[in-house]
Design goal:
- The chain has one domain: Spore Coat Polysaccharide Biosynthesis Protein SpsA, Chain A, CATH 3.90.550.10.
- Helix content is 26%, strand content 27%.
- α5 crosses α6.
- The chain is α/β, with parallel strands linked by helices.
C-alpha cells in the first residue's frame, strides 16, 4: 500500500475532464421514517423541496456533470421511483437493483448489492442532502470524500484529516460541535475500481458474518485503519448544503434554497 505522500503524488496529479467519473450509485432503499407523513405513500427521494423532487434535482445535476450511467438501489415504494424515472433520461441510462430486505438491513447491505453490477469507478450518493450543484465539481474524480466543518446542527459520522487532507480516522456517531479537528461526512464518496474491489472484499466478510445492520462507514473506518483505503477530503464549506433527517430539517433546507433561487441543487434525504 502507498504511504500518504505517495498517495497524494498519485492522486493529486493530473485529473482532467476526460478521465472524470461517469457512473453514479444512489442508495434509495430506506423508508424515510423520520420524514413521515411525507413518506407515507412515496419514497424519500421523491419528497419535494420547494416544488421540485429530490430525485429530479439529483438527475439534473448528474446530467450536467456529464454522467452517463445511474444505478439506483431501491427498496421502499420502489415502483414509484421506476415509474418516475424509467430507464433513460436525455443520455443518462438508469438501472435498478431492488433490496428486498430494506426494512431489516442498513446501508451496508444496499451498497453490497451493487458489487456485481458496478465494475468501474463511481460516485456514491445517499439521498439525505440538499447541496449546491457546483459542490460536486471535485467529487467526480476517484477516492474522495465530501466533508464539512462541524456545526451545532450536525451529528453523525466525522473524520480526522492529516496535513495532506487524507482521512486518518472515522469517528462513528460523533455529535460534538466543538470537535475542531473533526469534519462531518456529507455522505458523498468517489471510488476507483481498485478501492471498490477492496471494499467489496471487506463487505463480503461482514455480510457472511451476518453484519447486515451496520453502516458502510464501519467498513471504511476499518479499511482506513488497515491502510487499504485512502480518501482525499473535499470541503463542502464554500457553498450552502443541508442534511435533512426530519420535517424540521426540511423546513430549514427550504429556507436555505428558496423557490426563487437561480442556484441549482441536488437533494438527498435520509
Amino acid at each position: 500500500m502507498p504511504t500518504n505522500i505517495e498517495y497524494m503524488h498519485i492522486n493529486s496529479g493530473n485529473y482532467n475532464k476526460d478521465n472524470s467519473i461517469t457512473t453514479a450509485l444512489l442508495l434509495a432503499a430506506g423508508t424515510g421514517s423520520r420524514l413521515y407523513p411525507l413518506t407515507k405513500n412515496s419514497p424519500k427521494c421523491l419528497t419535494l423541496v420547494n416544488e421540485k423532487s429530490i430525485l429530479e434535482r439529483l438527475v439534473t445535476n448528474l446530467k450536467q456533470q456529464g454522467f452517463k450511467r445511474l444505478v439506483i438501489v431501491t427498496g421502499y415504494k420502489k415502483e414509484c421511483i421506476v415509474e418516475f424515472l424509467g430507464d433513460k433520461t436525455e443520455g443518462l441510462s438508469i438501472e435498478y437493483i431492488h433490496n428486498p430486505l430494506y426494512n431489516s438491513t442498513n446501508n451496508i447491505y444496499s451498497l453490497w448489492m451493487a458489487r456485481k453490477i458496478i465494475n468501474e469507478s463511481f460516485v456514491l450518493l445517499e439521498s439525505d442532502l440538499v447541496i449546491e450543484t457546483s459542490l460536486l465539481n471535485k467529487m467526480i474524480y476517484p477516492d474522495r470524500i465530501a466533508v464539512a466543518k462541524m456545526q451545532p446542527w450536525l451529528n453523525g459520522t466525522t473524520v480526522t484529516l492529516n496535513d495532506l487532507n487524507i482521512v486518518t480516522d472515522f469517528h462513528l456517531g460523533t455529535s460534538d460541535p466543538h470537535a475542531d479537528i473533526c469534519y462531518k461526512t456529507v455522505n458523498i464518496y468517489s471510488f476507483s475500481i481498485s478501492s471498490w474491489r477492496r471494499i467489496i472484499k471487506k463487505m463480503n466478510q461482514f455480510i457472511s458474518e451476518g453484519s447486515v445492520n451496520c453502516y458502510y462507514e464501519t467498513i471504511f473506518s476499518k479499511m482506513v485503519d488497515e491502510e487499504t483505503l485512502f480518501l482525499e477530503a473535499i470541503s463542502f464549506d464554500e457553498k450552502p448544503w443541508y442534511e435533512i433527517d426530519t420535517i424540521d430539517d426540511l423546513a430549514e433546507a427550504k429556507k436555505l434554497f428558496p423557490l426563487d433561487s437561480s442556484r441549482e441543487v441536488i437533494c438527498e434525504i435520509i
